[in-house]
Write a structure and sequence with these properties.
By secondary structure, the chain is α+β, with helices and mostly antiparallel strands. The protein has a single domain, classed as START domain (Alpha-D-Glucose-1,6-Bisphosphate, Chain A, domain 4), CATH 3.30.530. The chain is built from four helices and eight strands, in the order ββααββββββαα. The chain has an eight-stranded antiparallel β-sheet. It is globular.
């Protein structure tokens, strides 16, 4: 996984190749049952309470710790171009889906490009300030997201067996 912080644009860019065709990769990012298999870094688990994958729709889910603690988040979808890209605002919430104003939101833009049965996912995450990006990185975002994307790799390997 390639992850670069861009101070001037207040963004994180992430690039990751997957040995799977675009249809499979798209499905893994947009199907809540599949998302729950890979989104959380072990030993955490992801549990989607609801998901309406369309512009104006929302994924509402919890990251569940081994002790059973639930940390809720939402992805509010702002654009969907099937099998090409989608965007969403990601925010921490309470158990009722109300945003946690202390952390604000991250604006995610996720793009999919396939070449020879390899799909590259390019992600741009924008925040209001570079300090917010640094805070996310300090919270373990890089390590956690890398582990989640490795889970996704394992999912594709499992499908090929």
């Amino acid at each position: 996984m390639e992850l670069i912080l861009h101070k001037e644009t207040k963004t994180i860019s992430i690039k990751r190749d997957f040995a799977a065709n675009r249809d499979l990769v798209w499905e893994a990012w947009t199907n809540p049952e599949i998302l729950d298999k890979w989104w959380a870094p072990a030993p955490f688990q992801s549990h989607t309470k609801s998901m309406d994958f369309k512009v104006g729709g929302r994924r509402f889910y919890a990251m569940i710790s081994p002790e059973g603690n639930q940390n809720w988040s939402a992805h509010d979808f702002t654009s969907v171009n099937p099998k090409e890209n989608f965007s969403f605002l990601s925010s921490f919430t309470d158990e009722n889906g109300n945003p946690n104003s202390e952390f604000g939101a991250s604006d995610w833009n996720v793009n999919f490009d396939e070449q020879n049965e390899t799909t590259t996912v390019n992600i741009i995450i924008k925040r209001d300030s570079y300090e917010e990006l640094e805070k996310i990185i300090a919270m373990g975002f890089k390590e956690g997201f890398k582990a989640a994307l490795e889970n996704l790799d394992e999912y594709f390997i499992f499908l090929k067996k």
